[in-house]
Design a protein that fits this description.
By secondary structure, this protein is of the alpha+beta class. The chain has a single domain, classed as Immunoglobulin-like (Sandwich). Helices cover 16% and strands 32% of the residues. It is built from 2 helices and 10 strands, in the order H-E-E-E-E-E-E-E-E-H-E-E. Strands 1, 2, 3, 5, 7, 8, 9 and 10 form an 8-stranded antiparallel beta sheet that branches. The chain is globular, with a radius of gyration of 19 Å. The termini are far apart.
């Protein structure tokens, strides 16, 4: 009898934990990254978790090597992708993980494309929020986008100067 109670209690705890894990996952969003020629380079999926936002990067058709990736303040991807605006920076920080006054909330690590032009990564950002109820949500009135750069970000210089041109962009869409 004691074994059955223990098994039932364990099952109840697992069920409780599983149902609360789903609640903790929160909001999700996806951005289809399009290159300058209009071709899809893949997707970046964002999931809000207790520690911030987890980004799952799955890209193709890139030149091999490192590429800067940033979350930008406007949900528009037109022309040379300057329509995406500046890097998302609700707290007024300075750009870069190596900057004493940084990083900006939209600063993300470089993604590395292999010799075949594909890049896959999981990135955790503690500075981002998808929940539409928070003041600094990425889903404000003009939305947000992810911008991919030609070269690596050095994590301290304005990426418009060190990472080359904007080569890809995707508008965040709530799922």
């Amino acid at each position: 009898m004691k074994t059955r109670l223990t098994a039932a209690a364990a099952a109840a705890i697992l069920l409780f934990a599983a149902s609360h894990r789903a609640d903790a996952m929160g909001e999700t969003a996806v951005a289809e990254i399009k290159l300058a020629d209009g071709q899809s380079a893949g997707t970046i999926t964002l999931t809000e978790i207790a520690a911030g936002v987890l980004l799952k990067v799955e890209l193709k058709g890139l030149t091999p090597g490192a590429h800067g990736l940033h979350l930008h303040e406007t949900g528009t991807c037109e022309g040379d992708f300057s329509s995406a605006g500046a890097i998302y920076n609700p707290l007024g920080a300075r750009h870069g993980f190596l900057n004493e006054e940084g990083p900006m909330a939209g600063d993300l690590p470089n993604v590395i494309a292999g010799a075949d032009g594909t890049a896959a990564a999981e990135i955790l950002s503690p500075y981002l929020h998808l929940n539409k109820e928070t003041e600094d949500t990425l889903f404000d009135t003009d939305g947000s986008s992810l911008v991919l750069f030609e070269k690596a970000d050095d994590y301290q210089t304005d990426p418009e100067g060190d990472a080359g041109s904007r080569i890809g962009c995707g508008v965040l869409k709530s799922q």
